[in-house]
Structures are given as C-alpha cells and as structure tokens.
Amino acid sequence: MSRPSSADGAPPPSPGSLDPLVALQARVHALEAQLQRIDAEGGVEARWARHRAMLTMMEEWVAAHPEWAFFAPEGRRAWTVSALRVPEGTTGRAIAGALLKRGWTIGAGLDEMADAMIRIGHMGDLTPAHFAALLAASALSESALKERPGGSMSPFCEPPTVTSTPHSSWR
Questions:
Q1: Contact, 107 vs 149, CB < 8 A?
Q2: Which residue from 14, 57, 77, 96 has the least number of CB within 10 angstroms?
Q3: In the beta sheet, which residues pair with residue 81?
C-alpha cells in the first residue's frame, strides 16, 4: 500500500527519515512549557528584573575583584550575559575548562577572543541563588581554579548540573 502525497503534491518523507514537523512540534511544546514558567514567575517583566538583578550581582563582584573587568562600559551591558576580560596569566579557555570540571558551564570568548575573555550568562531559568553560588568564595579567582591536592573539587552548589547558561548543553 502506498502512502498518499501531501496536500501540495509533494511525496511523503521516506521511511526512517525525520518528518520536519516532529522537530517543530517538540519546539512548540518547549516554548509552551517555558511560557508557562514565565507566567508562573510573574510575567516577562519579572524575568527581565531577575536578569537585571543578576547583572547587578556581576557588577558588584567585578567591583570587588579589580583583576577582572567588563568589556562593555557601564550603561551598555546586557542583562543576559556578561563578557569579562580575564586576569593576566590565565585564559578564558582555561577558566571555562576548570569550572566545567566542577560542574559549572560558562563560555570562553569566541574566535580570536577565546583566551582574552569569559562569557557568563545570567538569563533564562537561572536564579540569583545559583548565580551567587558561582560568584561565591571568589569562584572565578585564580586560587579557586587551581586543583586542590588530595581530592576532587566539588561544585559550589548541588546538584553539579547547574549551569550559568541555558544553552550550554547544545554543544
């Protein structure tokens, strides 16, 4: 028995191929779930306020750690992600890699900036409590990034799957 053509006359997908609507349907369900979360937390304005609060936390942390600096000047920083110049003697890739070993996902710079910066997301479902845990105890300082002898370093909060960027699993 043959399968019917679509309404526009195109042949149906071959057996075993992914129907494009399946991928689209999954995205629509994910969007619906995320919109419900946004609504439950007070709407998009509340989410934006949370993102802005985490930027303020980042600004306060950088002010207290003069070895770090923002790329963007005050008043021009995104509410969703911060790009920081890394301290002398280390690289963005090294810092991102060391934090990944401890369960945190941040980004190094892109392309030629991979060694000069790190990118830390403060958006999506990330909460100020998660963000504070990343920043706590100088989590990004050089001393916190060095391996401790005699054991492994655990993340600064549990579970170790907490990430600072919602898209970190897309690699």
A1: no
A2: 14
A3: 121
Can you read off the two tokens belonging to residue 164? 């600072």
Q: Are 114 and 92 in contact (CB under 8 A)?
A: yes
Contact 166, 124 (CB under 8 A): yes
Which pLDDT score, from 0 to 100, does residue 142 have? Answer: 54
CA gyration radius, the chain: 21
Element (H, E) at 69: strand 69-70
Q: What is the pLDDT of residue 50?
A: 95
Closest among 132, 120, 118 to 57, alpha carbons compared: 132
pLDDT tens across 17-63, in order? 666 777 788 899 999 999 999 999 999 999 999 999 999 999 999 99
pLDDT digits (tens, 9 = 90+) for 99-118: 888 888 899 999 999 999 99
First to last CA, the chain: 41
Sheet of 81-85: strands edge to edge?
69-70, 81-85, 117-121, 107-108
| Global confidence as pTM | 0.68
Q: Which residue is associated with the tokens 């790190």?
A: 118
Report yes or no: 153 and 147 within 8 Å, Cβ to Cβ: yes
